[in-house]
Each structure stands twice: as C-alpha cells, then as structure tokens.
Amino acid sequence: MLRIERDPRGIATLILDRPAERNALCAELIGRLTEALTTLAGESELRLVRLTGAGSAFCAGADIAEMRAAGAAATENNIADAQRFLALLDRLDRMPQPTVAIVNGAAYGGALGLIAACDIAIAGAAARFALTEVRLGLIPAMISPYVVRAIGVRQAQLYMLTGDVMDATAAARIGLVHEAVDDAGLPAAVARLSDALLAGGPCAQAEAKALLRRITGQSDATDSMMQRDLAHWIARLRGSDEGREGLAAFLEKRPAKWHDPH
C-alpha cells in the first residue's frame, strides 16, 4: 500500500500504492503513512520528503466503504477513526523537513488535505481536484484547516459548497498547488524544485517552518482543540441520515435522495 524510495542525496519519496483503488485512503494506508512519516521525521540526515501516487491517480480520497462503516459504528469508534486521519495530517504538517506533494493525477476529498498539508505542491496537467464531500452528505472537516490555509475562505466557499472539479491550472491559480506543468515535464519540474530545496540549510528550513507556524498563530493547544472539534463534527455527519444516504448512494452508484436530476 505504501512504497518508499530513497535518493542518496537525502530524499525520501513516499508512493501511495493502491492503484486499483486509485490510492484511496483506507485505515491501513493511513496507519502506514503516519508510521513512515514519524520515522522519517526523526532522521537527521533526511533533507526532503516527497509524496505521490502510483498509477494514474494521486489519491481518490477516503475509502468510501470504510467511511460508511465508520458512520454506522458506535460513536466512540467513529470519532477514533476520524482522529487517525487527523493525526496523519498533523504529522505531515509538522515534518521538520520540507515536504512536496507531486500530484500526478486525480486528487479528491481527503487527498486535498495531503496536498495542502505539504509545504509545496506541484501538479501535472492531467491532475483534477475536487472537494466532493457535500455530494455525499458530508463536509471536508478534517482537511479544512489545511485547505483553507492554502486557498482562502472565498475559494473554499465555491469548491466546498459545489463539489465541482477543477483542473491543474485552476488549482495553481487559487493556490492549492504552486505550479502546474505538462505531464511529460513533471519529473523535470520536480527535479528542479528538489535541487532548490537541497540548496537550503536544513536547520534553517526547519526553523522557517516553525516560524511560519508561530506567526500564523498555530500552537499545540489550539491545534489539539481544533482536531478534537473536527473529529466530533465529521463523526456526527457520517452517522447522520443524510451522511449515511450519501455514502450508500455512492457505493450503490445511484443519485442520492436529495438530488433531483431535473
């Protein structure tokens, strides 16, 4: 489910490796990714962490079948499931090394949280992005702090409320990714960016990341409170009638009951 490739210059590339499921974030993958990032965070010689997907997709977001099961579970289990994904995003956001999302294809729902939690994101022209949660009767609660930080409230209103798909050019325009390039040129663009990051002092880069957290008002206490609130919020909606209907409709490949095709 997760591969790690190493570059002798001190680069680790994490590859989401469920191509048949479009690299959807199941509980096992979330756990493996969190564990890998925790290990990498402690490697003093590591200079750069990159994240991408195997096959034609970056990440399809949450595993919908598991989301449905969480919504039907006991409240404490539903909340615990949400907290695991929140812990992954927090770990990615707090990495001491620079982090780069390489968006090689479709990125939906929770995938936008991974992208926005990385320091820098670059996308190929084939990439497509969407916050599709409202079409499932849900909200992008857990990823919202990172996505809103990247694109701002005004753009979040458009994409969170409609669930519309945006292309790589639009994603770059609103700040979700820093650069959109031709698919064929993506490896070269990633190489250039990696070289630029390797030219910086590793301690200075870690301090710069800490500085950005400080001047934007982030702290352990506020982060912990926010994560608790978000876990309860998404758990409540997953267990609601509308959330259960939306997830069931998706899995059964039918319109949700609130959707009027006319």
Task: Please provide a brief summary of the model.
The protein has a domain at 2-184: 2-enoyl-CoA Hydratase, Chain A, domain 1, CATH 3.90.226.10. The protein contains ten helices and ten strands.
Features:
single chain; 262 residues; alpha/beta; 2-enoyl-CoA Hydratase, Chain A, domain 1; four-stranded mixed sheet; globular
Q: How does this model look, in words?
A:
This protein is of the alpha/beta class and 262 residues long. The chain has a domain at 2-184: 2-enoyl-CoA Hydratase, Chain A, domain 1. The protein is built from ten helices and ten strands. It has helices at residues 27-41, 64-72, 75-93, 110-117, 144-162, 168-174, 186-198, 202-215, 220-238, 241-251; strands spanning 2-7, 11-16, 48-53, 57-59, 99-103, 106-108, 120-124, 128-130, 165-167, 179-181. It has a six-stranded mixed beta sheet, with helices on both faces. Helix 2 packs across helix 9 (220-238), helix 2 runs antiparallel to helix 10 (241-251) and helix 3 packs across helix 9. The protein starts with a strand and ends in an 11-residue tail after the last helix.
Taken in chain order, the helices and strands follow as: EEHEEHHEEHEEHEHEHHHH
User: Termini distance?
Assistant: 41 Å
Number of helices: 10
Name the strands of the widest sheet in spatial order: 1-2-3-5-7-10
Mean pLDDT: 97
User: Helicity level, as a percent range?
Assistant: 40-55%
Rg (C-alpha, Å): 18 Å
CATH architecture of the domain at 2-184: Alpha-Beta Complex
What is the count of β-strands?
10
Specify the biggest β-sheet. 6 strands, mixed
